[in-house]
Amino acid sequence: MSHTVREKQKLLNRVRRIKGQVEALERALDGEHDCMEILQQITSCRGAMNGLLAVVLEDHIQTHLVDADSDDGHHGGSAKAQLIDVVHSYFK
């Protein structure tokens, strides 16, 4: 069972909170709110997404990568290479 399935409800709750934050940002832009308020909303959304990423990435490392190199490559490459790929995709 995948760690995202085990933690499905917690992850969905986070995504729903992020959705609410993005909708609040949309309302602020539509309502032509002050740019400082909009910037604050954007940073809040970014922080929430980073938090979600951190939780999923940490679980992925703990679940799939910690002992992956000793599993004869059944995880699609070395654990180190997988982690590097994930980090690089984050910074694109």
TrEMBL record:
GO terms for biological process: negative regulation of DNA-templated transcription. InterPro entries: Metal_Tscrpt_repr, Metal_Tscrpt_repr_sf. This is Metal/formaldehyde-sensitive transcriptional repressor. Belongs to the FrmR/RcnR family. GO terms for molecular function: DNA binding; metal ion binding. Pfam families: Trns_repr_metal.
